[in-house]
User: What shape does this take?
Amino acid sequence: MATAEDFGNYETAWCPGCGNFSILKALKKGLADAGLEPHQVLMVSGIGQAAKTPHYINSNVFNGLHGRSLPTATGAKLANPDLTVIAESGDGCNYGEGGNHFLAAIRRNIDVTLLVHNNQIYGLTKGQASPTTPEGYVTKAQPHGVMLEPFNPVATAVLLRAGFVARGFSGMIDHLADLIVQAIRHKGLSLVDILQPCVSFNNVNTFAWYKKRCYKLPGDYDPTDWNAALAKAEEWGDRIPIGVLYSNERQSLDRHYVELGCARGINSQTDMRELGEIMRKYA
Amino acid sequence: MATAEDFGNYETAWCPGCGNFSILKALKKGLADAGLEPHQVLMVSGIGQAAKTPHYINSNVFNGLHGRSLPTATGAKLANPDLTVIAESGDGCNYGEGGNHFLAAIRRNIDVTLLVHNNQIYGLTKGQASPTTPEGYVTKAQPHGVMLEPFNPVATAVLLRAGFVARGFSGMIDHLADLIVQAIRHKGLSLVDILQPCVSFNNVNTFAWYKKRCYKLPGDYDPTDWNAALAKAEEWGDRIPIGVLYSNERQSLDRHYVELGCARGINSQTDMRELGEIMRKYA
Amino acid sequence: MRQENTSGDVNIVIGGEAGQGLVTVGDILSKTVVRAGYSMVVTQSYMSRIRGGHNTYCIRAGIDELQAPRESVDVLVAMNDETVGLHRGEMTNRGCVIIDGKSKVSSDGLARLAVPFSELSDKRYFNIAALGVVASLIGLDEELTAGAVDDAFGRKHPESVEANRAALAKAYDWMKSRRLPGLVLPPPRRSGGRIVMNGNQAIALGALSAGVKFCAFYPMTPATSIVLSLAAADQRMGVVVEQAEDEIAAINMAIGASFAGAPSMVATSGGGFALMTEGVSLAGITETPILIAVAMRPGPATGLPTRTAQGDLEFVLHSGHGEFPRAVFAPCNVAECFHLTRGAMKLAEKYQSPVFILTDQFMADSSRAVEPFALDGLDTVNPGAIPESFNGLYKRYALTQSGVSLRLLPGISRNLVVADSDEHTEEGHITEDLAVRVAMADKRSRKLGGITSEVIPPQYVGDETPELLFVTWGSSSGSVLEAAEVLRAGGRKVGTLCFSQVWPLVPEQFVERLEKALRVVGVEGNATGQFCRLIRRETGFEIRDRVLRYDGLPVTPEFVLAGLGKVD
Amino acid sequence: MRQENTSGDVNIVIGGEAGQGLVTVGDILSKTVVRAGYSMVVTQSYMSRIRGGHNTYCIRAGIDELQAPRESVDVLVAMNDETVGLHRGEMTNRGCVIIDGKSKVSSDGLARLAVPFSELSDKRYFNIAALGVVASLIGLDEELTAGAVDDAFGRKHPESVEANRAALAKAYDWMKSRRLPGLVLPPPRRSGGRIVMNGNQAIALGALSAGVKFCAFYPMTPATSIVLSLAAADQRMGVVVEQAEDEIAAINMAIGASFAGAPSMVATSGGGFALMTEGVSLAGITETPILIAVAMRPGPATGLPTRTAQGDLEFVLHSGHGEFPRAVFAPCNVAECFHLTRGAMKLAEKYQSPVFILTDQFMADSSRAVEPFALDGLDTVNPGAIPESFNGLYKRYALTQSGVSLRLLPGISRNLVVADSDEHTEEGHITEDLAVRVAMADKRSRKLGGITSEVIPPQYVGDETPELLFVTWGSSSGSVLEAAEVLRAGGRKVGTLCFSQVWPLVPEQFVERLEKALRVVGVEGNATGQFCRLIRRETGFEIRDRVLRYDGLPVTPEFVLAGLGKVD
Ligand SMILES: Cc1ncc(C[n+]2csc(CCOP(=O)(O)OP(=O)(O)O)c2C)c(N)n1
Ligand SMILES: Cc1ncc(C[n+]2csc(CCOP(=O)(O)OP(=O)(O)O)c2C)c(N)n1
Ligand code: SF4
Ligand code: SF4
Ligand SMILES: [Mg+2]
Ligand SMILES: [Mg+2]
Assistant: This one.
């Protein structure tokens, strides 16, 4: 069985002190704990600091366009349902440019694990507001402070009855690794929104800020209770719950297609006889 | 003062019996009841059957791209905050192709009235599933029935604390007209999701189907109670509540820009002296 | 300029409102015509609405091989009064109007078959009665027609079979004494055996035959029917057809699926394609095979959403930021829709590049009589190489002479496959090493060499040293071929050069022909002569005379001949 | 081939990691250089990361007018050891390395100023000390440098003013005994008075001067800084700068704003622009003025996100489905960034069309010494006509000879303004009348006539009958001009033809020059010679010799000269 080390050890392009390092660590641990081998995993990402993560994981990688990790991951999963597909990107990527795909992926309940490094900022492009940036936060692009209501990804995911909704904190590596394992094992769209300090562009939501606020959901918390989940997902401020907020057992889109016989995996051969019959209908 | 008749009487390209006719009627009534003159109104739409509506209203019109009525309306409102801007389009347009703009317009709380003809189908392109099509519904494009969880626009809007969230039914014209008046008067993003039978492509959610289920919210319903609103917004099936589900008094984006002095309307002149000072900073 | 029928063909227009069932009648009639052994070209013209308005379904049938529509009408099936007025001016001398006997509309001395529909059948079967009248009029066998009706309704509505039969029989009966000999088709030269297929169906069939396993789409006329044909076959053929939330999702899904090993395609039209252009560029740099079918309609923007055009050639050719190789096919007829789609899918896999099928509304909806495709033993795309064939450290973008690197699929072996939208190393990892950048850009460029070596030459027909040479591409080709024949019949030495692959161009394949001709005329369905400009860019040869159509209708032989008069 | 400095200029490279403050030092130094009265060209090269890696800020300063960067380095300010190794090979004979005295890295016999930074200042002010060393080295006055430092920090960090001053003074002091005469700039020929501005700042200023009131954007390097300059001035100038959820929203917002009466623009780079192409087409058919700034970087897809390229010319030129007129400007220098942006905004309004500014990362970040723009009395865009000037039934798309219809704004009069993305009537309502379609398409096309009549001719410099003619466009022009001068100094008869408007092209303006030259060489920042192809398409003239750069760096005079050697 593969260990966390088998998932590699690469030099990164991140800033010293960035919250991404612990996420990377948790991810490697999670992959190993989930019993996966590098070649069984396909990491798909968009563009941004978070989206560089797959380059630092020893696995199959498709590093695509900004905002588009989810559709690319969806296509890959439908093509080869045997793959463990993980989409990993930033808050800007998934909730900004990719907002429409976020909604659709949840509705599809495609069996993809979605890891969002939520640093509440556009890191790679040097600090513009992302959809999760708090109201009033001043940046060069928002000189009068953000005027938009921030987007709550976990509440939205719960509302839309995503298969699996969790929130993690990059400062709690083992807990996060465990969330990742659960997310991977869940058959359906699994969101892990990960609170991640950005030391270069977010001086509000720092490591200390999160450390003070994040608390684990109690052991008797029932993630299948939608109403409770919604309430927890709305909790933000002095106390921020982390853990599995919600999950359900809806059948994933890829299973539907497999069962219908549409998705037959990559080794299936074209049946020319069958095609001939289809053609004859045109006679 | 203008009457409903002043908003014109045009030949349409809709199917006989389509729910759009009553929406058009309610809209004209609503515009008149809101005390508006044709030239004070800008109707912005996307592409689809619903999106043809502005062509049948005597007003200013920008009939843009499929899915893009909200950003276009947003730009127009920011350019000229004096205009009454109404975005009108279908469920496919606003929740499908335009899903990301739907989220963003709510977060911006731009003072635009959004009228969605929700026929739970793509009408103009001949009956593919839209985001609100019920699970299991069979179309030529979904031969095995829709496998995606339908999108609940009003619940999502409430969750994200849209300024004003209402649901109307095209079969109840006066009620709908009143919702439209309220939506126009509300300063902020005002969604009216309108249940609309499509006689050509939706044989489930018919006029009779809705007629049986739609009921008006009681007089003592408090639309400022977010929790209650969310519960009502989730109600669907045997009984479907119509009316104003939710509203709040958050300041709209256009007001922010007006107060900052950024949005000065279309008659403001460029101050070259000021620009000279800006330039001198480069010396 | 109207061209009269001389050559054993008949041109039927069924006109009426959307929702009146024109397409049903048209489809059954065209099936009967082909089963009878005739050649056929269908042209559909419809409005962007579901009910009302004015639509037409035009069937040209004949004993010789037809390749183009004809504008003049021999039989007008008027499903409503408005139709008569709208098409009166197009009627030939032998023209005849079929209309409800109750109609009071004037048909200005045109031969008129006033059909007592209410005597022949129940209102629900008027369509079938009309079908019977026109089928009988042009001399189609009643049993043959009845068979086609059965096939159309039998499975779905078994209860209606008898009523349909009865209405048809009555119509044939009523017609017995009313045959107009001028409209009866001569006996066919062959005995049927062909299939009836339009361009979009042939594209779908071609893709299936090549092994397509994934298609994502967002509905857009006139591309949607490609996808619907695939969806109808999804369980039988093992293909996933997924409606996406938008066109951006569609192309990114298809790229993801292709990367993972499913031969993949998307289908859209101009506005939807615009949203895909970033994805085209992604396919370019990640070297992911993908077939992109673009069915053109008149722009800009929403334009005329249900009409035809050839106005997006330059857009498609230059779509996507940055530089990377591609190939663009433009089928000239329905059979080519099948074969070129197959070829395009294979080319996409071979060169790990985006490849385009550029079609249009006319071709999309134009049913033809087509020889059934020989499917037995056809090869399919086999994505990726066999991992066992490889050992060593796998590099997705290994630099090679051809520019093509060994493609492995993720997950099926221990080799890790890394693809990147950034500039990348041979291993697929992001790099900012500028020397590597140049090496990678050059590697990608080299693939164009291979693609170029496989270019399908334009088809030349005609005299070796023509006084007049037509140059055209894609769906306009049929009409140009026919216009040339008309001119030849009039004694002129005419050649035609029809391009079914519009990129890359290989000047050696055709430039001599351009130079040898006394006069060269370009024919295209756009306003700026995009293909003529491209030829000049690639060869320096300027085609100054151009016959351009951009009113939303297909280029027809008549249009070419009339246009020639103007530029003459 | 390295070109040595002979002409009173000095080329300084500051190199180090992202996050080390290179840009701060570079900006202050460049300000000082310009205030002293020198000409200057800055080239910035940075990686797609926030910390670490290797970035450079290069300042070429001189007494004569400089228009291009230079590759050979006279002064290397090495903020870390790695920098020495990376740039050692670029050093000129008189070259000197400035480095921390504690560094052990070898500089191979290069003159070396080992600066005892920790003796000169606290660690926080090392940057300022380094600035003092290099400023002193090239002979800049201490007070002038100190003033620039104050301006940079004074307002934001008043507490640091004294410490900065002290560090600077110590550095100047330390340098007193260490001047290397070969690097001291000769006295300037002018006494300052110019401003320091890069291409993106000049675009923002140009747009403001033309009266821009709305800009929507989604962040994308290297376009973002255009928008940030606008945002910094938003309250003072009355402009709304709104970050959109994606680029699609950005362009549709800008179109909505423009329709409603705000002169509007967007700014993006290739991948973001790809998402805007449907909107470009919308602007085309609705005839809505819009300025689209595209700052190029190497593609395809994410490519090299922080580097430079001229690879999106063809993409921009053909972007959007369907056919409609447009204009594309490509500023050759920073002053042109200002003037052409102004002109583009006015042209967009006049012809109610999308108009492009095509720039790139090199130009975006290249600060220059620029004459302050004469703002007094500049005219601004006045969107729409005065409603009082009009009476009768208003028709947004009235057919006119020029193709331009009277544009009224919605809401300011009783006239109703109706715009449509479908093909439409003169009133702006959706139509499927095909004759109206043709009339509208022709009307739109006619606007190209007006746009063409206002085309800015390419600038020609050089001998009337050159043996060698360079053809180039946009940001590569400066380097081509300088390369030509070098060749002329070597006795060759050389001409340069620099295009700052790349569409439409008016062959009569330049084709004779192409034909007269003995030899024509195209110079571009892409791999396929896109502009050369365009010239051939429009004129038939083939530019076979091409010097093409696509490694992510700007075309330099050295690159041109070396490339000439290869194609020679
Ligand atoms: C279509 C497109 N638009 C914009 C960009 C520029 N861009 C690159 S990364 C990024 C933001 C990244 O923010 P986020 O996803 O939060 O990631 P982070 O860097 O914060 O980890 C943007 C806007 C792009 N690459 N492509
Ligand atoms: C970019 C783009 N994609 C697709 C289309 C095709 N299209 C036109 S209308 C429509 C669906 C309309 O559905 P909806 O918005 O629900 O309106 P309805 O017709 O049902 O009123 C689609 C997909 C388009 N015009 N543009
Ligand atoms: S910019 Fe922020 S998110 Fe990006 S690497 Fe640096 S600290 Fe991390
Ligand atoms: S297709 Fe449906 S929505 Fe469209 S006009 Fe007909 S009934 Fe109405
Ligand atoms: Mg982020
Ligand atoms: Mg709909």
About this structure: The two ends of chain B are 56 Å apart (CA to CA). Residues 137 and 145 of chain B are 5 Å apart (CA to CA).
